[in-house]
Amino acid sequence: MRQVVALLGLLYVAVNLLAAYLFVTSGLAAKMAAKGMLQQGLLLSGGLLIGLFALFLAWQCVALALSRERATS
Amino acid sequence: MNRRMLMLIAVIATVAGAIGIAIQLASGAQPWGPTLADNMVFAKAIPFTLGLGVALGTVAGLAAGVRTVRRRAATGPGNPAGPAEGREAEGAVRRFSTLTVVMHWIAAVGFLLALVTGVWQYLKGILDVESPVFMPYVYRVHYVGATLLLVAMSTMVAYWLVGGVGGLIPPRGQRIRHLRGLAHELPRPLGSTLAVLLGLNMRREPPPTEQFTYYETTVSFPTWIVLLGLVTLTGVLKAMRYVYPIPGDLLWWASTLHVASMVLLAAKTLDHLRYVFAPGRWSLLTSMVSGWMPARVIQARHPAWHERIEAQQAQPESAPDATPVAGPTPPAAQVTGSTGGVA
User: At residue B157, what are phi and psi to the nearest 5 degrees?
Assistant: First the structure.
């Protein structure tokens, strides 16, 4: 069961990393710079935040997949 | 008012509202396109959605109170938890009521639908690309998700208020204690930094963990409350803009804050999953599926909660007529679970 949950978690991580990538690349695009600091800052900081938390979750998913049932529950 | 009567009125009002909205939509008299029509349906349904949730939560809160009184009458004043349920006999303790579990998952489904479609709308706008999915469908799913979230949120808020449930956030006078508990729970560098910033005394013995961890009471739950409150309020304002004239500036801020809270909620969801996916906290995850938690885990990881349960179970034997520890009539939540731990 833990492995299934960990796999679902990793899928969710992948989707979030894709979103984070799109946020950051869009935030750095010249078109967005013209829209102002607020929009650009929101995209960049949001992308970095989501990417960072996605990596934390990925780490935890790997730990969950490798954990043993009785030792930790 | 009779609980069944209250529920009946709420259901009739909701059905009547749904029929009224459907008749208006099907009349062919409305000039709107599919996206605007969905927006209008969602906006007009909001009062009924919230009303249904409040009625459901109120009825559940009142019912939980009645069950507690009945159990207390049947088992004596010192055992408000009542006779052991099946799983209690197997060494499990109820952490969440069935309603809490059901509403958590309804909220989770609604939230994820709204989040994914919200990010889709936002990215389509900033990338300036054609959506491979018909956009009115994306908006429709967004409104469905928002409706599920509104029902779950209004139900739980009413349930907590009527049932007198607390424990999700630090009670008054215990905030420093909870922050100290948090500083001890966090990894050492983070905990020490927090202690220095807030002037916490880390030499004192760490407070034992209650039903909820200190991370949950000081970081997780308050963050959920603030962000879900913000995204709901701004979302309702945005949805109402075609029903009621909303000033442009207010609408701009509502849109910006809606997107900002969406991004923060995306990060918060990842953090929430990170926290409950930790192998050592597996039972926190399973308790949100079954509602129950193994007693051995409570003894090992929630010593203050374990102590409270033990004290309340021991009372009838040592002093059958003694009043419970927490006062003359503690709510059931104080005994088996502060999110309404009564099945």
Answer: -65, -45
